[in-house]
Amino acid sequence: MFNNMLGKAASVAFLTLATIFPAAAQDDAVARGDTPDSQKGYDISARSDRSDNGFSDSRVDARMVLKNRAGQETVREFSFATLEKENEGVGDKSLVVFGSPRDVEGTALLSHANILDPDDQWLYLPALKRVKRISSANKSGSFVGSEFAFEDFTITELNKFTYKYIGEEDLDGMMTDVIERFPRYENSGYTKQKSWIDQEIYQTRKVEFYDRKDALLKTLILSDYREYDGVWRAHSLKMVNAQNGKETELVYGDFEFKTGLGANDFEQGVLRRLR
Amino acid sequence: MNRALSSAVLALSVSALSTHAAAGEWDLGAEVAGELRYFPNDPLFPGQFEHFQPSFTVQPDIRWESGDRAHQVVIIPFVRVDGQDDERTHFDMREAYYRYNADSWSLTVGAAKVFWGRTESRHLVDIINQTDAVEDIDEEDKLGQPMVNLTLLNDWGTVDLFVMSGFRTRTFPGVDGRPRFELPVDNDEVIFERDWRRGAVDVAARYSHYIGNWDFGVSIFHGTSREPRFAIDLANTRISPVYDKITQGGIDLQYTKDAWLWKLEAIVREGHGDTFAAAVGGFEYTVYQIFGSSADLGLLAEYQYDGRDEGLVLEPFGPTLAAPVTFGDNDVFAGARLALNDLQDTAILAGATVDTNDAFMGVFVEAERRFGQNWTAELEARLFLNADPGNAAFPLRDDDFITARLTRYF
After folding, report:
1. Would A18 be classed as within a structural domain?
2. Which of B103, B208, B289 faces A264 most closely, judged by CB atoms?
3. Is A170 exposed, middle or buried (0-12, 13-18, 19+ CB in 10 A)?
4. Chain A touched by B231 (CB under 8 Å)
5. Could you tell me which CATH number the domain at B23-409 has?
């Protein structure tokens, strides 16, 4: 029979934070497309992605504030560790450990991201000391009840999309390139995403998500960008759902880079020593 | 443990470790739970309590980790105070260990918990820790096991080596308790096959790895069986647990593809009557965002086989079951889990295990929900249906029960 933690696990089981940070560009003919607009959209997205090369590994604590339509708030806390991919044929590796609520404290998710194949993911349930390989097919599901879907954490993975350049636009006094992108992977909840990338430091500032009926579903605002040795990180990601009025803000603390993490820190055997 | 006591423990530990503590980090917490069990049927056996069983548990959680994460100290005591069954009132060191973490290996010394396995309805391969049998009948609660455990992390897989002593006996519900067998188990009259009894040394090893969509483990255990046989002492109308020396080899396997998880565990055990094999295998399939909602529905099915001897053998200490009792000899499990994926992590799990020999059915339903940031509430029901006289579960036929539990996290 089952332990209760298994039920809890279901709600946190399928997050896909492996590629929460932009990964290095991979030259992919399909992603580049074959029209001038798609080539330009790809190039601008690739330049944004490549601004992140060489971050090596990072650690950061994060806080997620979930707000319902009545304005009631719930808080979730996590810590993330990320290892930049070894080469362009694979994705980043990441480890997410839950800090709160306390009943799920210590629950951890290890992800090995892939480009178009589903990611490899293991869940660690500290009360049972159980390591469980889980399915990562749930792309469009909600991450811990928030307005973020699992696939929203991979939005900057270049070759997961095809692109179309729309034009330039002034976004709150900042010149941006506007690009539409179309998911290439299976099980996406979106027909397209529209993104605004600034022309100065090439970072994504805003994303609109369109549902399967092509109606606006959510808007993501990325702000509080800070530079770490040439690598930029947004410290506030605010997602507002246009259809149900709920919102979720993900706030990062200070990032630490090149912390000495290695491949062994992202193997399933390491999960048991986390807690 | 109350707060004053835990602060005292903390103060002592802080002074002991103060030279390192400057660079390290403390994490203190606790779970306190109140529980009420209700048995709607009258008890079958003399001495058993009637209907209500209130209890509470306290589980402090004390951790320290050095700044470089190389040194870890974990102390998790547990206590339950039960209003009906003295045997269920108990204390255990769930975890109390020191661990050193190097880049490619870890060494754990102390009482710890280890889980091996893949399947849901039965944990055949899992053998390191003794079951805390008075907590629940689902064998999910474990006692801390004293051990030295060396873990080697390699890019070709993880190797775990264990040397253990300080054997923990399984505690069964007392004369007052429900559910229990017709004759109560005498937790003080324990029979050991091995010299040194609780001091005998157990050894174990496991190798685990993954290749593509396959995750697998291979394990071996040699030592005192965590599962006891039962010696039936008719003169004193009681059952004595018998702990034999066994050797058990196990494999566990999972294939993960899209929304499907295929799972298998199998063991071969020598030392409980004739050498026998047992296996459990099946699948878990998840329907995501069912009916356009944010809820996920998981469907589970597993088959359980166990080839162990049945019946009695005559030992020097009297008539004794040839092998430990098992319910899962030829059974089919089916279940479903609904996770609402809401802010409260509301989830409901229901399942039934049916014995294909005589249609005995063990049914359970578990529901849980968080309230605020620090409270959870759980409701559980367990039913024993169609228990015929020939089935090991026959004595439990009137012990259906409902449990309500409220837990506060600190």
Report:
1. yes
2. B103
3. exposed
4. no
5. 2.40.160.100
